[in-house]
Structures are given as C-alpha cells and as structure tokens.
C-alpha cells in the first residue's frame, strides 16, 4: 500500500485495480488452466510517476506465484518490470521472450 492506496483484485473483471484521486489504474489478466496472461496495463496520466504501475505489477505477479502458474506478459509494462526484477523470470512461460 502506497499513500493509503490499495491494489484490489476484481476477478469478475479479470483485473487488478487501484482507485485514486478520481481515476482508475488497472492491470488486466486472462487466467488459463496452467498460465496467466497479462495483456494490458493502464495508468492514467494523472496517476503516472507515483508508483501505481509497480504496485499493480507486484500484486499481479505475487498472485500468479501463489497460484503456481506460469505467466505470459504480453503487456510491455509487465514484461519490462520482469526484466528489471529477475526474480520473476522463472515464472515466465517457456518459449516466451521478454
């Protein structure tokens, strides 16, 4: 939690969400049997530079790790986050290139 803001998993919407300052930042996911695809992250301009993207990525990747699933980070932000945090690389699905 940063600045009293929480990341909430909304499974019915298949996304992790942060609501702050009247805006919504989110990271979408598609859960499959053995993997989770992260296709898209949106952080409104008004919320950029605060660390909300990082918070979303950490929450989503931690959730995937708890589930024991491989990940497919097709979202450029999530792929970039994993490149900067190599502890998540073993979670990436075989054959997916970051």
Describe the protein.
This protein has 98 residues and is an alpha+beta fold. The chain has a single domain (8-91), classed as Gcn5-related N-acetyltransferase (GNAT) (Aminopeptidase, 3-Layer(aba) Sandwich), CATH 3.40.630. The protein is built from two helices and five strands; from the N terminus they run ββββαβα. The protein has helices at 52-67, 76-84; strands at 8-10, 15-20, 23-31, 35-42, 70-72. It has a five-stranded mixed β-sheet with strand order 1-2-3-4-5. It is globular, with a radius of gyration of 13 Å. It starts with 7 loop residues before the first strand and ends in a 14-residue tail after the last helix.
Keywords:
single chain; 98 residues; alpha+beta; Aminopeptidase; globular
List the topology elements:
Elements: E1 8-10, E2 15-20, E3 23-31, E4 35-42, H1 52-67, E5 70-72, H2 76-84
Parallel strand pairs: 4-5
Antiparallel strand pairs: 1-2, 2-3, 3-4
The CATH homologous superfamily is named: Gcn5-related N-acetyltransferase (GNAT)
Q: What would the principal axes of the Cα set say about the shape?
A: globular
Supply the CATH class.
Alpha Beta
Tally of alpha and pi helices: 2
Helix content: 25-40%
Q: Major sheet: order of its strands?
A: 1-2-3-4-5
How many strands, what sense, and barrel or not for the largest sheet?
A: 5 strands, mixed
Number of structural units classed as domains: 1
Instruction: Report the average pLDDT across residues.
Output: 95
Query: Tally of extended strands?
Result: 5
């Amino acid at each position: 939690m940063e600045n009293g803001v929480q990341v909430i998993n909304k499974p019915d919407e298949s996304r992790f969400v942060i609501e702050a300052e009247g805006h919504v930042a989110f990271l979408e996911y598609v859960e499959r049997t053995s993997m989770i695809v992260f296709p898209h992250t949106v952080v409104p301009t008004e919320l950029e530079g605060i660390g909300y993207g990082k918070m979303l990525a950490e929450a989503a990747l931690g959730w995937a790790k708890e589930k024991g699933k491989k990940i497919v980070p097709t979202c450029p932000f999530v792929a970039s986050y994993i490149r900067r945090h190599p502890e998540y690389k073993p979670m990436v699905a075989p054959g997916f290139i970051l």
